[in-house]
């Protein structure tokens, strides 16, 4: 049986649906085709705990494998605050709110076309997380 290759846009939609299914927060899709040759899209999603992040990873992995896509690699499993799943055309970053605020990948890719899931809440400086306030207190 030959499996049909799934394209980047289909991977994005499949990944978003899997993340929404396990209640990931603030799902953002960034189109980096014009800025980066390594991948076409980056998806960033927030999990409320390491346990939820692991559930997010598992759900996305299962969903893409069911459609015939094979993940190229994973980084940060276990107790990590940031897990990455490389799907070739799509790289998925699943992070705690504190890690997401600290690394601020959205700002790194500022200027790339971005879209948020319908129920996504932005974690902009106006809506800073407690972690960023702690960092400010250290300064």
Automatic annotation (TrEMBL):
One Pfam family named in its UniProt record: RsfS
GO molecular function: ribosomal large subunit binding
Regions crossing the membrane: none
SUPFAM superfamilies: Nucleotidyltransferase
UniProt KW Repressor keyword: yes
Subcellular location, record wording: Cytoplasm
Ranges for region Disordered: 115-139
Domain of life: Bacteria
GO terms for cellular component: cytoplasm
Compositional bias segments (type: Basic and acidic residues): 116-139
GO process terms (BP): cytosolic ribosome assembly; negative regulation of ribosome biogenesis; negative regulation of translation
Alphabetized Gene3D superfamilies for the sequence: Beta Polymerase, domain 2
Primary location recorded for the protein, binned into one broad class: cytoplasm
Keywords in alphabetical order: Cytoplasm, Repressor, Translation regulation
Similarity-based family: Belongs to the Iojap/RsfS family.
Functional description taken from the UniProt entry: Functions as a ribosomal silencing factor. Interacts with ribosomal protein uL14 (rplN), blocking formation of intersubunit bridge B8. Prevents association of the 30S and 50S ribosomal subunits and the formation of functional ribosomes, thus repressing translation.
UniProt subunit comment: Interacts with ribosomal protein uL14 (rplN).
Protein name: Ribosomal silencing factor RsfS
